[in-house]
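Open question from group meeting: does this chain pack into something compact, or does most of it stay loose? Before anyone orders reagents, we agreed to write out a predicted structure and look at it together. Recording both the input and the output here so the notebook holds the full record.
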Amino acid sequence: MRHFGLIGRKLGHSWSAEYFARKFAEEQIEADYRLIELHEICDVQNLTLDGYNVTIPYKTAILPYLQALDPIAKIIGAVNVVKNGKGYNTDWIGFKQSLSDILTKHHTVVSNALILGRGGAAKAVKYALEQMNIAAEMMSARGKIAANIRQYELIVNATPLGMSPDVNTYPDMDYPALTDKHILFDCVYNPEETEFLRRGKAQGATTVNGRRMLEIQAEESWKIWNN
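C-alpha cells returned:
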C-alpha cells in the first residue's frame, strides 16, 4: 500500500482526496490519499508519505524544508508536488492547458493578462502565461483593485477569494467594465461558479473555473510520483 496526501491549513474545500480515490479504484491501484491539515509548515518534517501535494498557504513556505527543487519549480518559486524531499510545480501545466483549451474553443487570442494575487498559484500562472507569450501583471487582490481592467483581455483570480466555505467573497474590481471580449479564469474550483465568475458572466465575459486545472495538475503529480 502506497500513501499520498495533500497538505494545507484548511482543506474542507478540497476535492483532491475524492479525485484520487476514484482514480485508485478505477485503475485498481493499492494506495490511499489523505487530506492533512498542518497548523504550521514545520510539521511537514513529520510526514512519511510516498508523495504529496501542497496547497494554500504553503506553496512558497515549504521551500526551506525541501532538499531539492525541480528547475521549473525553482524559476516559479512555488511548489505544489513533493517526492522524496524534492519539490515540483504542476500548477503551471494545469493552468496552461486549461487556458489553451478555452482559447482554442472560442478562437480567441490573448495578448495581456491581469493576475489577482501574489502567492504560489499566482506565480505558477505567471510562468504559464510567459510560456504562452502573454504579458501578465500580478496585483494584490486585497482591498479595491484600482487597475483599469478593461485593458486586460484575461483576468485570473489566483487567490482563495470565493472558495468554499467563504463563497460570498470575491475580488473587488470594476465588474461593469467587463465585456464579452474578456475571459475570467478562477483557479478556485469549489464552488463551480464563484461570485467572481458570476459577476463576469453577467457582463458577457467568458468564464472558466479551476476544476480542469486541478485534474491536469493531479495527473501530472501522479506521473512524478511514479517516475
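Observations to bring back to the group:
The helical segments are 16-26, 71-76, 91-105, 120-131, 195-202, 211-225.
Residues 91-105 form the longest helix (15 residues).
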